[in-house]
Each structure stands twice: as C-alpha cells, then as structure tokens.
Amino acid sequence: MPPLHGSCLCQAIGYELDQLDMPISHCHCHTCRKAHGAAFASTAGVMREHFRWIKGADLLSSFQSSPGKRRHFCSRCGSQLMAERLAQPHVIVRVATLDDDPGLRPQAHIWTAHDVPWLAYADVEEWDEWPT
Questions:
Q1: Is 88 contained in some domain?
Q2: Domain containing 56: what range?
C-alpha cells in the first residue's frame, strides 16, 4: 500500500504515514472543539514509526492544550495537523488534513458528554453545495 499524504491549508507543511493504526473517531471534547473551531475533530492514531514530516517541519508550532498533550499546527495558516503525548507510542492525526482517502470510515463519536446544545444531528437540512 502506498503511503497516505497530508498537508496544511497553505501547503507549506506536508506529512506522510504508512497507515492509520487506530480507528477514526470524531472527538467532541471542549479542547478539540476550541482548537479546531468546529463541533468535533476527526482523529486517528498512527504509530510513531508510521508517521513522518516530509516538508515544512520548521514551520510547525505547538501548544500544550492539557498536561502532557501537545497540538502541532502550521505557523502560517493555523491548520492543526497532529497531537501527541510523548509517553505514548502513537501520534493523533487530524484526519481532515489527509490529502488521500484512507479507505476507512469513522467508528465512534467520543467525548459526547462535552456536546453543546446547538449541535444537532437530526432534522437538519443538507445541501451538496452552498444553498441558493
């Protein structure tokens, strides 16, 4: 299987990974919500030996969002790319930054106890593109 590629919004930083080693989950915790400016963040674990920066690593910035957890993002465009706890054997990739389809689908929503009242799943209209 060829490696999967990912990048930030401005394309200054790129990474590749051999595979997703853990299921895709949608994380609803308040720190993911704030860090991404979204209702949840889609994440998957990747063993460290399966992840590598391929360009722009000098443009990475990081923030310790909770004790021992560092979130890494592009210093130019702000895209969150991955997070890590140094003691863990894996990193946490932000699946939305993948440029390639990993061929997997989400298996769970996690930290839904942190959901906010405005987040609704049922009875919400859908459009393929911006509505006219």
A1: yes
A2: 4-112
